[in-house]
C-alpha cells in the first residue's frame, strides 16, 4: 500500500551487523490495527496520584468497598476483550495482580507500536505508573510479531519531561502526523524527538475545557480513523490553530466530525478504529468506544461514523472513574505477525545450526566425550 522509501533509521537502529542501517518505512501504514493488547488489572481503583491534573477522573461511590470497584472493573475489561474478539480482532490479554499499579489497565500510555517493526516506550508523569512497563509484553511482541527496534524514552523521567504515548499523542499513521495537546504529560521536546525518530510531523496545540483547565491527554478529545475523525475542535482556543488542525485532518479526504465538550466528558473522543474479520475472512472496520460515548452521539454523528465502520460499544463506567475509557484501555499492534510455527527451516538456518550445542550455548566439539 503506497510502497516504501529508504529513510534514516530511528535513533539507535542498527542493521544485523550492529552498524547504523537504512530503515524502509511504508509511505502509508494502516490506521486501524487488527491486534491489540489489553491489561486485566485485577486490583483496579482510580489512581490518586493522577487526580490533580485529570479533570475527567472521579472518586469511587461513597461507601463502596475497593474490592467491589475492582470486581466491577474486571467485568468491564473482560466484556471489552469479548466484544473485540466477537468482531474478529486479535486480543492479547495480560493479567496484572499488582495493587500498586492502579492504572495498568491503560497500556497505551507507556507503549506504542509502528509499521516496519518499531516499538516505543514512554516516560510517565505519575511515579506510581512507571512500573506499568512490562518486559513480558515486549517479549510477546518480539516473539509473535516482527520487531526490529525498541526505542525507550523512559530515561527522560528523571529530567521531569514526559510523553505518555498514544494518550498524549493521537497519531495519524496515514499522513504521519502526531496531534498533541500540550500538557504536563506531553512535553514538546520529547514530541519533537519522537517525531524525528519515527518520521511523524508534530502538530502541537493548546486545548482547554470551559474552565480553562488544560486537557490532560489528547486522546480524550480526538480519535482518528481511516476515513473519519472525531475531534473537539471547539476546545482549541486559538482560532487559527483550530483551522490548521481541521485542514490537516481532512487533507486526504477524511471526514471530520466535531464533538462537543459535553460529549468529550462522556468519552466520545476516546474511541479507536480497529480492523476485525468476518467469519468469511473479509475485513471488518469497527470503531470501539464506551457505552456512554455511544449514547452521547447525535444520530447524524453516528451516521457519519457508520459510513466507514461499525460502532462497537461496551459499558465501562467503573474504568471511566479513572479518567480514561475504551481507547485508553487498548494498545494497538501495528506490527507484521511472524509466520506460524512449524515451518521447515531454511538451508541457511540448518547450516548455521549443524553442530550440537550445550544448554548454555557453548559449542560441543565433535568426537569428544
Describe the structure.
With 369 residues, this protein is of the alpha/beta class. It has 11 helices and 17 strands. The chain has helices at residues 66-86, 135-144, 165-168, 188-198, 239-250, 261-264, 291-296, 299-305, 317-320, 326-329, 347-352; strands spanning 4-8, 22-26, 35-41, 90-96, 111-114, 118-121, 149-152, 169-172, 177-181, 201-205, 222-224, 228-231, 255-258, 272-277, 283-290, 310-314, 331-333. The protein has a 3-stranded mixed beta sheet. β6, α2 and β7 form a beta-alpha-beta unit. The longest helix has 21 residues, at 66-86. It is globular and about 55 Å long. The protein starts with a strand and ends in a 17-residue tail after the last helix. 39% of the residues are buried.
In brief:
The protein is α/β, with parallel strands linked by helices and 369 residues long.
Which terms would index this structure?
globular, alpha/beta, single chain, 3-stranded mixed β-sheet, disordered C terminus
Write the layout of secondary structure elements.
Layout: E1 4-8, E2 22-26, E3 35-41, H1 66-86, E4 90-96, E5 111-114, E6 118-121, H2 135-144, E7 149-152, H3 165-168, E8 169-172, E9 177-181, H4 188-198, E10 201-205, E11 222-224, E12 228-231, H5 239-250, E13 255-258, H6 261-264, E14 272-277, E15 283-290, H7 291-296, H8 299-305, E16 310-314, H9 317-320, H10 326-329, E17 331-333, H11 347-352
Total number of helices:
11
Q: What composes the largest sheet?
A: 3 strands, mixed
Shape category: globular
The secondary-structure class comes to alpha/beta
Overall mean pLDDT stands at 85
Return residue spans where pLDDT drops below 50 for at least 5 consecutive residues.
1-29, 354-369
Helix content: 10-25%
Q: Give the H and E element order.
A: EEEHEEEHEHEEHEEEHEHEEHHEHHEH
Radius of gyration: 22 Å
Oligomer: single chain
Amino acid at each position: 500500500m503506497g510502497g516504501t522509501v529508504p529513510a534514516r533509521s530511528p535513533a539507535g537502529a542498527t542493521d544485523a551487523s550492529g552498524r547504523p542501517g537504512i530503515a524502509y518505512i511504508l509511505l502509508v501504514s494502516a490506521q486501524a490495527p487488527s491486534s491489540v493488547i489489553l491489561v486485566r488489572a485485577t486490583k483496579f481503583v482510580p489512581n490518586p496520584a493522577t487526580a490533580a491534573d485529570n479533570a475527567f477522573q472521579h472518586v469511587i461511590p461513597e461507601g463502596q468497598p475497593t474490592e467491589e470497584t475492582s470486581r466491577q472493573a474486571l467485568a468491564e475489561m473482560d466484556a471489552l476483550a469479548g466484544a473485540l474478539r466477537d468482531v474478529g480482532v486479535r486480543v492479547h490479554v495480560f493479567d496484572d495482580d499488582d495493587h500498586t499499579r492502579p492504572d495498568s489497565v491503560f497500556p497505551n500510555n507507556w507503549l506504542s507500536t509502528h509499521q516496519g517493526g518499531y516499538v516505543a516506550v514512554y516516560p510517565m508523569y505519575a511515579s506510581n505508573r512507571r512500573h506499568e512497563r512490562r518486559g513480558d509484553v515486549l517479549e510477546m511482541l518480539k516473539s509473535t510479531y516482527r520487531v526490529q527496534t525498541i526505542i525507550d524514552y523512559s530515561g527522560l523521567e528523571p529530567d521531569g519531561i514526559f510523553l505518555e504515548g498514544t494518550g498524549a499523542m493521537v497519531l495519524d499513521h496515514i499522513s504521519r502526523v502526531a496531534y498533541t495537546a500540550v500538557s504536563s504529560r506531553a512535553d514538546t521536546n520529547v514530541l519533537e524527538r519522537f517525531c524525528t525518530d519515527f518520521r511523524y510531523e508534530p502538530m502541537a496545540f493548546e486545548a482547554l475545557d470551559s474552565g480553562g483547565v488544560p486537557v490532560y491527554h489528547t486522546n480524550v478529545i480526538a480519535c482518528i480513523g481511516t476515513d473519519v475523525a472525531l475531534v473537539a475542535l471547539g476546545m482549541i482556543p486559538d482560532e487559527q490553530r483550530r483551522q490548521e488542525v481541521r485542514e490537516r485532518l481532512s487533507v486526504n479526504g477524511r471526514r471530520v466530525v466535531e464533538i462537543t465538550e459535553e460529549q468529550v466528558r462522556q468519552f466520545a473522543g476516546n474511541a479507536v478504529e480497529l480492523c476485525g474479520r468476518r467469519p468469511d475472512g473479509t475485513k471488518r472496520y469497527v470503531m470501539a468506544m464506551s457505552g456512554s460515548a455511544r449514547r452521547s452521539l447525535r444520530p447524524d454523528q453516528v451516521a457519519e461514523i457508520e459510513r466507514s465502520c461499525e460502532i462497537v460499544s461496551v459499558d465501562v463506567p467503573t474504568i471511566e472513574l479513572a479518567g480514561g475509557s475504551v481507547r485508553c484501555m487498548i494498545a494497538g499492534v501495528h506490527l507484521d505477525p511472524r509466520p506460524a510455527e512449524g515451518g521447515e527451516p531454511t538451508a541457511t538456518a540448518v547450516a548455521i545450526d549443524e553442530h550440537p550445542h550445550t544448554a548454555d550455548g557453548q559449542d560441543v566439539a565433535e568426537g569428544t566425550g
